[in-house]
Amino acid sequence: MSVGRGLACVTVAAAGWGTAGATAALVFDSSGLGPIALTFWRMAGGLVLLLAVRALLSRRTGTARRREPARSRAARVLITGLALTVFQAAYFGAVAGTGTAVGTVITQGAAPVLVALGGRLLMGERLGVGGGVAVAGALAGLAVLMLGGAGTDAVRPLGAAMGLLSAAAYAVVTLYGRSLGRHGRGTDAFTTTLTSFAVGTVSLLPLAAAEGLWPRTEGLGRTLGLMAYLVSVPTALSYGLFFAGLATVRATTVTVITLLEPVTAAAVAVGLLGERLTAPTLLGTAVLLGAVAALAVAETRGASASVPREPAPVPGPVGPEEDAQPPVKPVR
Fold first, then answer.
1. Are 145 and 281 spatial neighbours (Cβ–Cβ below 8 Å)?
2. Alpha-carbon distance 48 to 166, whole Å?
3. Which residues cross the membrane (predicted)?
4. DSSP secondary structure letter of residue 317
5. 6: which residues sit within 8 A by CB, 6+ positions away?
6. What tens digit of pLDDT does each residue of 174-226 get?
7. Which of 154, 155, 288, 332 qualifies as a FRET site for 55, CA 20 to 30 Å off?
8. Residue ranges of the alpha helices (H) in the chain?
9. 186 — alpha (psi -120 to 50), left (phi > 0) or beta?
10. CA distance 141 to 289
11. Helical axes 3-18 vs 260-271, angle rounded to 10°
């Protein structure tokens, strides 16, 4: 694939992920489902689609499995799967609690910052002056976003807290994937995503049943159509395009392009759902996203100065990541 096509794939994937929150909000309105039940159905549907794709690819290319100790594999599958489950469920909780636009911006803005800080504190990765300034700017943007909208309909504390929980869970997934890769125990992104969806489906089933597993019959056709879109476009299609684009596009470029996700989410929320964004919310969003883009550039420059050219990729739960590179945006 050419670089141009890779960029197009990542761009379409980011735009697709940006519609996930709005779709979830519409499902909440029409179905009566809660965030946990919707996450269960999304992961279960995604698991079925990924299994079908895997079966198709296995028939065409054959399978090559890497041997891994059973205990190590079980720990990897459980830790990654549970963290990814919390990430997605908490994101839908943020959407339900504080709206699509703000919930997405908080989650997607805080995630790279928490990964950068966690990499510095837990793995000794250097931020550098530029990276430190970018992190401080991102934290300032988050503060303006949440404090400026406090007490209004734009930002609600519980929804904001769910967004931060989602970002923290994503940081766990990413940092754990980096750690495994450093020790030569990483696995391919497709397999990790598939097993994570399996863990999420099993672990969420009792919680979803307690919350209310089945949508109400009124408007069932609309609900099923929205859920089919959620499983296919922001999940299966966007995953496929994202993985394809990663083969030719640099990790930093991917990080910056995927800032299109919260922008798309905000545009859809305002235009389609009628959400209103206050001036402080808009200012905080602009500062936050700008700082995340600066963080990606700063980390790339730091990596270029300290890492040999063409470092070995470290497969992670959402696509290959280079060591000391900025995190690739989470799969929505």
1. yes
2. 24
3. 40-57, 77-95, 101-122, 129-152, 158-177, 189-214, 226-247, 254-273, 279-298
4. B
5. 244, 245, 246, 247, 248, 249
6. 788 777 766 666 566 677 778 888 999 999 999 999 999 999 988 899 999 99
7. 332
8. 3-18, 20-31, 35-61, 70-98, 100-123, 128-148, 157-182, 189-211, 220-231, 238-246, 251-257, 260-271, 279-306
9. beta
10. 8
11. 40
Distance between CA atoms of residues 128 and 84, nearest Å: 29
Sign of CA pseudo-dihedral 289, 292, 293, 294: positive
Which tokens in the block code for residue 102? Answer: 């703000």
Kindly report each contact of residues 130-137 with a partner whose C-beta sits within 8 Å and lies 24 or more positions away, as own/partner: 130/294, 130/297, 130/298, 130/301, 130/302, 131/295, 131/298, 131/299, 131/302, 133/294, 133/298, 134/291, 134/292, 134/294, 134/295, 134/298, 135/291, 135/295, 136/291, 137/287, 137/290, 137/291, 137/294
* Residues β-bridged to residue 319: 317
Instruction: Read off the pTM.
Output: 0.78
Closest CA to 267 of 73, 87, 96, 15: 15
Length of the chain, please?
332
Classified as helix, coil or strand, 319 is: strand
CB proximity list for 288: less than 8 A, separation 6 or greater: 105, 109, 138, 141, 142, 145
CA 225 to chain centre: 23
Tell me the pLDDT tens digit for each residue of 223-273. Answer: 999 999 999 898 878 877 876 776 677 655 666 777 788 888 888 888 888
CA distance 228 to 231: 5
Please give the torsion angle defined by the CA atoms of residues 38, 43, 44 and 45, in that order, rounded to the nearest 10 degrees: 90
* Token couple for 219: 């408007």
Of 213, 292, 268, 326, the C-alpha closest to 103 is 268
Q: Which two tokens stand for residue 151?
A: 């007490």
Given a contact cutoff of 8 angstroms between Cβ atoms, the answer to whether 174 and 317 are in contact is yes
- Distance between CA atoms of residues 168 and 172, nearest Å: 6
DSSP state of 322: E
- Which amino acid, 314? V
Cα separation, 247 vs 256, in Å, equals 16
